[in-house]
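haha ok so turns out i had the wrong file open the whole time. this is the CORRECT one, sorry everyone. sequence first:
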Amino acid sequence: AVQASPRHSVILLLFACPHLSLAVYSPPDRPPAPVNVSVMHLRADSATISWEVPEGDIIIGFSISQQRQDGQMQRFIREVNTTSRSCVLWDLEEDTNYIIQVQSIGLYGESQASKKVHFHTLKKSDRFPSNSSNQDDPTVQGLDKSRHLQTGEMIIIVVVLVMWAAVIALFCRQYDIIKDNDSSNNKEKAKPSSERSTPEHHSGGLLRSKFHPSVPSINIIEV
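then structure:
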């Protein structure tokens, strides 16, 4: 019998179990974890999360784990088919501590979670810090655009209401003018008839006074 060396045993094992060899020698496909996770544009009820992804890997999305520091509430945000490296967290509670972690989503799975990042939301009474860099943030620009749209819609609604009020007032004024004209015309038509009836009554009265039945009438005929 020929004794096989350890090297020959490995080769025989690879040929006998090709699936096992594939599993042993397949390279890892999971992307690396995001780095430089930061929180900016803090508000009382929102915050913007940004991160970076190492180059050389195909990233098709991200996943964010959001949790209150006291552990009472946890939320997961997952988005695919995007190349965005930022996300806005909404519906946060004011004056509250949060913990977030970000994962990259690749073609064959998700990466390890990034390092934990802690942040604290503001109070509603706090004023937002004026920062010129906020104007370059797409999130802030989107909020500004939505505010401008809301202001424009309110202006349009007010203008339409004013126009309707003006139309109604003009209609009421025209209706009053037409009503006054009709009443004056009716008075003018009724005035001549009353004037004509008075002499007839008066003359009739005179005739009745001349030919009153109580007064005797004498006719004298001379031959």
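The first helix runs from residue 6 to 16.
again sry for the mixup
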